Amino acid sequence: MPQPKVKLVVTGDDFGYCDRRNRGIVDCFLSGGISNVSLLVNATSAEDAAELAKRHHIPIGLHANLSEGLPVSPDLEGSSLLNKDGVFHGKMGFRKVLQSGKLNMSEVETELRAQVKRFRDLTGHLPAHMDGHQHVHVLPEVREVFAQVLSDFGIMFTRVPVEPGLHSCTSLPSHLLDFYTQVEQDALQSVEVFRRHGIRWPDVYLGLSTMGQNMSVPNLKRALAYTLVSRTSLKSNGFTTPPHIVRNNDISTSDSDQPITAELMVHPGYPSHPQQGGCGQGPDDFSQSLDRQHELETLTNPSLLVFYQQQNIHLCAFKDL
């Protein structure tokens, strides 16, 4: 078999969110649309998801959750991580509490460690990779704690959500582009922290511009084109991703005999039924949306799978990098 041009980890996030998401993610994996999953251990169907991963030999990592639903740790009563109802503050609420300076980082550490241990209890092993639900892992202060927890448990890989070509994507509404731009800025500032702790990540990250209805075979090919030209860019110093991300990541290399590594973040599944699933508060609109099934159908489109073969893109898991 020829050496692949690109080793692509296609990660199905939110595994465990509900039974229908689990079934859709497994169907997507068995059809060749994804190669890796990221588990929400505080979700209602996490135990089922872990069992499905074992049964079907699905590579699995941890989708650390500090923003949605109930905590895993029993020691967080009255915690700054929780609102008056005893649940996490939400995607934007978490960020507001963090910005106010009222978020206790020792409580963040307690919950992250509890989620790693819960993952180990469910799967029988530590996660091969660990990222953050709603990108909380790259936020200021949180990234320091997150990196230390990864280092202490020996978890080697994470996600750095800086997507080449994001700002040239015309299909994104302004409010999403503003949020993704902030995620990108936080991610760039996380690079030094992750590198200092010996944590690695693929050369290229994709997925912000191809979520939900924005996912199509042409849009995926457009995004993947940035990966396919990465080697040329590396050799010419015309980086498609910032130089300090590419150069200082232990996975990456400018050796033309080595494949470029990339992660594509996706959210396939069948839409959740109302009141069935979630992380302790029921499923959100994102999970009940038909966008989940749209992603599944796009990722398993035969023309996309043929494209991978034609371009010598090899789908793999983090453990294969």
TrEMBL record:
Keywords, in A-Z order: Carbohydrate metabolism, Hydrolase, Magnesium, Metal-binding
Superkingdom per UniProt: Eukaryota
GO biological process: carbohydrate metabolic process
Keyword Metal-binding: yes
InterPro entries for this protein: Glyco_hydro/deAcase_b/a-brl (IPR011330), YdjC-like (IPR006879)
One Gene Ontology molecular-function label: metal ion binding
Family matches, as Gene3D superfamilies: Glycoside hydrolase/deacetylase (3.20.20.370)
Cofactor: Mg(2+)
UniProt-listed Pfam families: YdjC (PF04794)
Family: Belongs to the YdjC deacetylase family.
PANTHER family referenced in this protein's UniProt entry, alphabetically: CARBOHYDRATE DEACETYLASE, YDJC DEACETYLASE FAMILY MEMBER
Functional note: Probably catalyzes the deacetylation of acetylated carbohydrates an important step in the degradation of oligosaccharides.
Protein name: Carbohydrate deacetylase
Organism: Chanos chanos
